[in-house]
């Protein structure tokens, strides 16, 4: 799934690949690919699993309360960003999509 949205709050935590992941409530502006259904979504930030320490050593990419493009996949019934480093792109109002 690919969408434009804005993380509006934290919505708990979940585990993936044995690591803790933070779940966010995302206000969906536009779905570009996929069919996540209507309304806001719960999406978890995929944590880097090779750090051995804290879940997000460089910060959680869904923490900023800003407009973003999210690349997500369904894992065990929950939405997760595709990768720790490339699942979220800042996307300010008025910016053109970085892909066609």
Q: Short description, anyone?
A:
This protein has 100 residues and is mostly beta strands. The chain is built from no helices and six strands. A hairpin with a 2-residue loop joins strand 1 and strand 2.
Question: What's the tally of helices?
Answer: 0
**Which strand order do you get reading across the main beta sheet?**
1-2-3-5-4
Strand content: over 45%
Would you identify the regions where 5 or more consecutive residues have pLDDT less than 50?
Answer: none
Oligomerization state of this entry?
A: single chain
Average of the residue pLDDT scores: 90
Described by strand count, sense and barrel closure, the largest sheet is: 5 strands, mixed, barrel
Summarize the amount of helix as a percent range. Answer: under 10%
Tertiary shape: globular
- Number-wise, the strands total 6
Classify the secondary structure makeup into a structural class: mainly beta
- Topology as H/E string? EEEEEE
- Quote the distance from N terminus to C terminus: 15 Å
Cα Rg: 13 Å
What characteristics describe this protein?
single chain, 100 residues, mainly beta, five-stranded mixed β-barrel, 6 strands, 0% helix, 49% strand, globular
Q: How would you characterize this protein structure?
A:
It is a single chain. The protein has 100 residues and is mainly β. The chain contains no helices and six strands. It has strands at 2-16, 19-33, 41-44, 68-75, 78-81, 88-90. A five-stranded mixed barrel has the order 1-2-3-5-4. The chain is globular.
């Amino acid at each position: 799934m690919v969408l434009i949205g804005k993380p509006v709050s934290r919505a708990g935590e979940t585990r993936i690949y044995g690591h803790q992941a933070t779940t966010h409530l995302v206000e969906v502006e536009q779905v570009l690919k996929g069919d996540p259904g209507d309304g806001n979504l719960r999406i978890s930030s995929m944590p880097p699993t090779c750090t051995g320490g804290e879940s997000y050593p460089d910060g959680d990419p869904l923490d900023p309360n800003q407009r973003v493009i999210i690349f997500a996949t369904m894992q065990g019934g929950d939405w997760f960003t595709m990768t720790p480093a490339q699942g979220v792109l800042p996307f300010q109002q008025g910016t053109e999509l970085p892909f066609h």
